[in-house]
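Case study: Diacylglycerol O-acyltransferase.
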Amino acid sequence: MQLIAPMDWVMLSAESREHPMHVAGLQLYQPPPGAGPDFIRGVYEAMLAHREAQPTFRKRPAQILGGMPGVTWSFDDEIDLEYHLRRSALPGPGRVRELLELTSRLHSGLLDRHRPLWETHLIEGLQDGRFAVYTKMHHALVDGVSALDLLQRSLSSGPSDDQIRVPWDLPPAVQASQPTNGPLGRAVGTAKSLAGLAPATVALARGALLEQQTALPFRAPRTMLNVPIGGARRCAAQSWSLERVKAVKNAADATVNDIVLAMCAGALRSYLLDRDALPDAPLVAMVPVSLRKPGDPAGGNMVAAVLCNLATHLDDPAKRVEAIKTSMRESKRVLSQLSKTQAMALSATTVLGPAILAGLPGLGGAPPTFNVCVSNVPGMRNPLHLNGARLDGSYPMSIVLDGQALNITLASSADSLDFGLVGCRRSVPHLQRLLGDLETSLKDLERAVGL
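Here is what the predicted structure looks like once written out:
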């Protein structure tokens, strides 16, 4: 028996047909020179030969009262690998557009609670000869950092390595001995830390009200993005040069994440202006902050969240960057004063929890905790390969919620930043246009800092 950690239980409890609670990744691969027509079939069969699965890939929630998640995990002794690993082909003409349409449909479907909570789809048929892998896992099993760690460990650093490794059959990562860091230890630690939340909340309020530099929960303006959502999703993806973003970062004396937030702020400002829907008050972004350290247990969620003033009311991109820098610096300062458990508890009670639980009956209608999630997950620093096929891009696809109809998540992949956008299909029209707005926003930032 293994207890479900508190935040993981919230992820399971909040799931419904309108609110799938899985995270996913879409990877694009360029086959090696000389790869024949049977290359992808060979990759699929080699993956299928890995019949063993580590505990994270064998567990599902024990259920009570006909479907509600209990407080423990069940573990399947065997898994139906042909169900979890699937091979698909795109319809013609096999453009990235068709790939994203398939990704949108896959991302809309719920994971089967009667089976371990993950699926991997090997997708061929792209007209340029590349192939894709789409994998989704329930957010109760992994956070963004641990999901990317699984991906990196399953790939090789060189094109000559033809050994195929799969995330579900990796050896356990080397971990330090931390007996109190499992689900029970985290639950006890969270309870013990509740007494420490009052000083943290006071510090947060002082930073916001006296210094006017930190965004507070439930102070975000209501926008067209902050509405009840349906179950269908639309996904969009694009890569940007990390070198371009770093050049702006250096010129603005900022961080890469500050510039990413500024890119998103400018894009959202343009997107909402085009629809005559930009509020007078600045939008607020929720920015997840990973608390995972070397030696921490794999799986589950070890994440806190800070709120960032996106300064979308400002027309000047340079002034917008300065406002974002200040907001992030002050929010991180408050977070740095807390222990890991206190940071997770504070985020769960004031930011993440209210946003997730807003989809439960009777709990909606409150002002939005924030307007949009912008998550920057540290990714791969060097080129990686799958059976000699080069990884061309790795696009995270995350969660949208009632009142939070848009999610922007990105990950670094060698020399690029790979953006994955997920929106409610009904509530966020023309999601792909945000990609053009992001490029325009980056160009505006380059001009603003003199590049």
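For the exam, be able to explain this: The first strand starts at residue 2 and ends at 3.
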